[in-house]
Specification:
alpha+beta; 16 helices
């Protein structure tokens, strides 16, 4: 039996892994986490997927218990600004498209839609809630979408059958601290020390982690949560890292924590605004914003990027410290080698355009529990875990490349180059098809990667990659039911805007 796990590195990845393993295995598996007090964390304020609720429900944690302690806010979707032209924007919401007579409302919008109104406002209720800065919950705590509320228990990403209508914004450091308390209370051994050496046995497997003050830490399985360094998986075991910079060249970011002068309202969405050499994020937390500029240093220097970010989000606030981050974009060929599993940045990372960092962590540790080894170390378990992790990352890579290929912006060298750079072979065929018909389950990236066909179509339509004509079949179907459904979307949106409190109003209530 595998009875002990040593996690090297804390932060979001380390403490999510420690707490999840304890929730899964309890006292049957000993978990030790070692982290250095001298190693800074990357976390700058995080946006997430709606599937994160599975993680907290698995741990038995209620939203009202942890969210106020982590400066949390709601995320109903992502608002993309200026990706096609200055002043233009659209939303990528957590909402599946409604279906009428076998065709999605996006298909019907191409046939019947009011082209004076953007596609996302016609087809989704959530966009109206974003525009009105509404909370997804009523003041009594009930969810605006009936039937989707309540704990999911110990469920996983694979069991999500309905699209939950929101995700979270939170302070990543605060979440790590909260989960550390949770994990330690449940028996995780927390060692604060510097790692001096990683020992290997005669097979090349990890035998111990030597620390400066606590001596050797030993376990059966080791988890590398050391961030971009990849201390165990890359530096010690020689794991090969596959770079994505040929198709996703953004390799740096600069971040600011910006206090909000107006504290009576906040946006319930992430903003991704196109900039001269990349894009600028805004993540509203309860009392401040997390802002950052993701860019390619082939087109702009760190100093220029910081200046552009400050001018955009915090003019006159040169006192705010900037956090410059060099990103390693890509994934390990294998994130599980011998008795070492890499989770988080040490495993894989793509630019945070669709908030996939914590999703990758959650997916990896869920799969680790499903493919947890025993003393036989069956290589098929390791092989299947590596396959699933690689597929998820590669699918997100392809989806993000679509953002740049479909965007119409071409006003700077960076955006002109985006149209010419390489892309995954399969994506070229998907984009060609999307010029004629909307994509579906058969024509998006075929392996689980967190994004459903509605997301691919929302991005294509929002960015300007619109089919030349609606599906011919719709000419032969009575459009009355589709027109009625468009009217219901508008009516539902108006009713929810009128009934729901503002995002700030509800969060202020649960924050006391």
């Amino acid at each position: 039996m595998i009875r002990s796990v040593v996690i090297v590195g804390g932060g979001t990845a380390g403490w999510m892994t420690a707490s999840y393993l304890k929730a899964a295995f309890g006292e049957r598996v000993d978990v030790t986490l070692v982290e250095s007090a001298q190693v800074s964390r990357i976390g700058v304020g995080e946006a997430t997927f709606s599937t994160l609720r599975h993680f907290f429900d698995y741990l038995g944690l209620d939203e009202a218990e942890w969210l106020p302690k982590c400066a949390g806010g709601y995320k109903l979707g992502i608002r993309f600004e200026n990706w096609s032209a200055p002043g233009e924007y659209f939303y990528h919401p957590f909402e599946r498209l409604r279906v009428v007579d076998g065709f999605s409302l996006a298909d019907w919008w191409l046939r019947l839609g009011d082209r004076n109104r953007p596609f996302d406002r016609e087809c989704f209720v959530t966009t109206a809630l974003c525009e009105a800065k509404r909370s997804p919950r009523m003041m009594d705590g009930s969810l605006f979408v009936s039937g989707l509320d309540g704990s999911l228990g110990k469920s996983t990403l694979a069991e999500q059958r309905a699209q939950f209508p929101y995700a979270y914004h939170f302070d990543a450091d605060a979440v790590a601290r909260f989960l550390a308390e949770y994990a330690v209370e449940r028996g995780v051994r927390h060692v604060i020390d510097n790692v001096a050496h990683i020992g290997l046995d005669e097979r090349g497997w990890i035998s111990h982690v030597r620390t400066e003050a606590h001596g050797d830490l030993t376990g059966d399985l080791y988890v590398d949560c050391t961030g971009f360094r990849g201390l165990l998986i890359n530096q010690t075991l020689g794991g090969e890292f596959i770079s994505f910079q040929d198709v996703l060249p953004n390799n740096r970011a600069v971040a600011l924590r910006v206090p909000r002068d107006e504290v009576t309202e906040m946006n319930p969405y992430t903003t991704a605004a196109a900039a001269s050499a990349g894009w600028i994020w805004t993540i509203p937390l309860f009392r401040r914003n997390g802002n950052g500029y993701v860019y390619s240093d082939e087109f702009i220097t760190p100093e220029q990027a910081e200046r552009e970010l400050r001018e955009a989000v915090a003019p006159g606030r040169d006192d705010l410290p900037a956090n410059h981050i060099r990103m390693r974009i890509g994934r390990n060929e294998e994130s599980w080698i011998n008795n070492c599993v890499a989770v988080g940045l040490s495993s894989a990372f793509v630019e945070p355009l669709e908030s996939t960092g914590i999703f990758f962590i959650q997916h990896a540790i869920e799969q680790l529990v499903k493919y947890f080894p025993d003393e036989r170390w069956d290589p098929m378990l390791r092989r299947e875990w590596n396959r699933r992790v690689a597929h998820a990352v590669d699918g997100v890579k392809e989806f993000l490349v679509l953002h740049y290929k479909s965007a119409r912006r071409e006003d700077t060298p960076y955006w002109k180059e985006a149209k010419d750079r390489a892309m995954p072979d399969a994506l070229a065929g998907r984009l060609e098809l999307a010029g004629s018909v909307l994509l579906d389950e058969e024509t998006v990236y075929p392996y689980f990667h967190g994004f459903e066909p509605y997301s691919w179509n929302t991005m294509n339509l929002g960015l300007g990659n619109v089919p030349a004509a609606p599906r011919p079949a719709l000419e032969h179907i009575d459009p009355a039911a589709a027109r009625a459904e468009f009217a219901r979307v508008r009516a539902d949106a108006e009713a929810m805007v009128a009934a729901l409190p503002s995002c700030y109003e509800y969060l202020a209530a649960i924050n006391g």
